Amino acid sequence: MSEANGNTLLVRDAEVGDLAAICTIYNQGIADRCATLDAEPKSDAEMAEWYHEHDARYRVLVGEREGQVVGWVSLLPYSHRCADRAVADGSVYVERSARGSGIGTALLRTIEAHARRHQFHKIVLFALAANTAGRRLYDASGYRTVGVFSEHGRLDGRFVDVLALEKILRPLVLFVCRHNTGRSQMAEAYLRAFAGDIVDVASAGTIAADRPDPGVVAAMADDGFDLRAAHPKLLDPGIVERAERIVTMGCDVEGIARVDDDWGLPDPKGQPPQRVREIRDLVKDRAKRLATQLREAAG
Question: Which of 80, 167, 207, 234 lies 20 to 30 Å from 257, alpha-carbon distance?
Fold first, then answer.
């Protein structure tokens, strides 16, 4: 389940019975001339043929709100070369009246989690350059614009540009503590250093704070890490939903539906320098072990 602007959204596997709604939503994108180079509405038979091109790895998911399908997302092969087996071609469409309500974001998050579980390394998307709402969605969801195919297709008698976008599907590890001024900041810095580009790393707190703890900054500087510019961040429900692993640091935190691990570490705030360094070393050891686990899982 996801929350899209306060309304519960169920994201689930599409079924044959959803095809009429899927077709209607896609045809809205065609009619609005905002989402596809297709110019003529699709028939039920054409959508059924498209649906049956999918399988357990290349999925179609729908977003359902109050019993109605309000959006869908799918994966298809980017190409049929073996070298591109880890790349999927993604599509996402939202019902006209529901656009801008968070449904597209929830659909993309869910299909990305599915893609990571099925050994996809990257999703590529293609979007009309004039589709400003779609571009906002893709930018906010972490898709990078690779380039522009100039005058790539003809629509309504004129050539239009098409954007190529991509997103590398690294798992996200999220460290959480109360203020995001000490242990979680250290864990983020160490895991990023130890794990490199196999994982995305973030940290956050459940209570607002202005700056990292000065004792933590000093202890990390002793080990070659500069946290002076680190900005404590408040926990964002969106990043919680995206995170593949959520680690708390040893304090009670609120606003998290699940916690995958708790490191049970003491709070360095107000501790003497030697004690802060000891806590730093505990964080470093745990981060190094986690990086090893992630590398083994990545093969």
Answer: 167
